[in-house]
Every structure is written in structure tokens, then in C-alpha cells.
Design goal:
single chain; 10 strands; elongated; Antioxidant, Horf6, Chain A, domain 2; binds benzoic acid; alpha+beta; five-stranded mixed sheet
Length: about 220
């Protein structure tokens, strides 16, 4: 199955390190970061899970829950957890889904439908495409997805930055330029005509080209 931005993540039941969950109940009405791993006890992934444990308060402050997924059992995840905590220097504060039957990996387009129904005989290398980050909105739609190569550690400061940009765009109907960070100028969306923009921004804007119109970050005023 192929998944794309704006697709709804269907509800699912899963076993996790915090016990069984119904995804929609667990998610509530907030934002979600769901990120995946091809195998437990892999070095790059251990650092990634640790970094998200460190950044957990930043995500919580943005009404965003975190959930990991790895293609192994809850028992394996629980044996892996102390290693992650040792690397992170903080407790692992979010659940890890056990996707040993590959169900979620397939339904989220990370493995092909014919990948089989068990992770038992599979290696981290043939699961290597299970290295995605999904940002899911309160409406359960996928707002951002990134898939990383197996030897390249992810950058979760970028995930936070995207979350900030998504939440800002949702609240204020603005777009954000390259490398945008909180407090930087934002862009009047291309979809807003000149007349509509004049009505909404009577004090004007800074136009670099007719279609690239900057205003100050609306949360700063
Ligand atoms: C890792 O080092 O975390 C890793 C190794 C192989 C495949 C994917 C991840």
C-alpha cells in the first residue's frame, strides 16, 4: 500500500511496551509523531530513540505525543529499553509498538504487501525501509513523512521545526520559507489573491517578487 501526505491513518490495535492500545483512543485530539525501526538492538536506531526521549518535553509542549514502532516483539523492546536509556541519559517516556507481524509496516507503506506475516526470519537489512517518521495531525491525516537510509541517523530537531511550521500554518493560514524557525518572517500563501491579502493584512507586507510576500511571524505580534 502507498501512503501519501493527507491520507488518513486508519485506526489500529497494537501491542506496545505500555500495554495494548487502540491508536485513536491513545492519540486523542493532539498531534502524533510515529517513527519506525527495522529491528531492535541496532546502533543508529538506539541513538534515535534516545534523542526523541530527550526531546520528549518539547513535543509535549506542542501537544504532540510520540510513539515508536519496531519490527520485533514487546519482550525484545523491553530488553532493548535499558540500552536506549543508557545512551539517552533519560528514561524512555513513550511507548514502542511491537510490529512483529509487519502489519503496520505494510499498512503504512514501509514494506510491500508480500513481505510475509512475521519478522522472525527477516534481518534489519531487508527491513531497512522501515525507517520513516510520520507527523500525524489531530484529524489523523499524515502531515509529513520522511524515510531515512539505514546508515543515516535522523534529525528530530527538523521534526520539531516541521511541527512548529504545521501548527503555525494551521492556526494562521500562512506558509513558511526555507529553514524557517519560530520568530522568522512567514509567507502569505500563494492561494491568497492580492485583494484578499490587502483585506487580511491592511498594514501591507514585504514583497520580494509579486508572489513572494513576507509578513512577520503572527505569533510574535
Ligand atoms: C541501525 O544501525 O540502526 C540500522 C541498521 C540496519 C538497518 C537499519 C538501521
Amino acid at each position: 500500500m502507498t501512503v501519501r501526505i493527507n491520507d488518513i491513518v486508519p485506526d489500529f490495535k497494537a501491542e506496545t511496551t505500555d500495554g495494548p492500545i487502540d491508536f485513536y483512543d491513545w492519540a486523542g485530539n493532539g498531534w502524533i509523531v510515529l517513527f519506525s525501526h527495522p529491528k531492535d538492538f541496532t546502533p543508529v536506531c538506539t541513538t534515535e530513540l534516545g534523542r526523541l526521549a530527550q526531546l520528549f518535553p518539547e513535543f509535549t509542549a506542542r501537544n504532540c505525543k510520540i510513539i515508536g514502532l519496531s519490527v520485533d516483539t514487546v519482550a525484545d523492546h523491553l530488553r532493548w529499553k535499558p540500552d536506549i536509556e543508557k545512551v539517552a541519559g533519560v528514561p524512555l517516556p513513550y511507548p514502542l509498538i511491537a510490529d512483529q507481524d509487519l502489519r503496520l509496516a505494510k499498512s503504512l507503506g514501509m514494506l510491500p504487501a508480500d513481505a510475509g506475516a512475521t519478522s522472525k526470519e527477516r534481518t534489519e537489512t531487508n527491513n531497512a525501509t522501515v525507517r520513516s517518521v510520520f507527523v500525524i495531525g489531530p484529524d489523523k491525516r499524515i502531515r509529513m513523512m520522511q524515510t531515512y537510509p539505514m546508515n543515516t541517523g535522523r534529525n528530530f530537531d527538523e521534526t520539531l521545526r516541521v511541527l512548529d511550521a504545521l501548527q503555525l500554518s494551521e492556526k494562521h493560514d500562512v506558509a513558511t520559507p526555507v529553514d524557517w524557525r519560530r520568530g522568522d518572517d512567514v509567507i502569505i500563501p500563494h492561494s491568497l489573491t492580492e485583494d484578499e491579502a490587502k483585506r487580511r493584512y491592511p498594514n501591507g507586507w514585504r514583497a520580494v517578487t509579486p508572489y513572494l510576500r513576507y509578513i512577520a511571524d503572527p505569533t510574535e505580534s
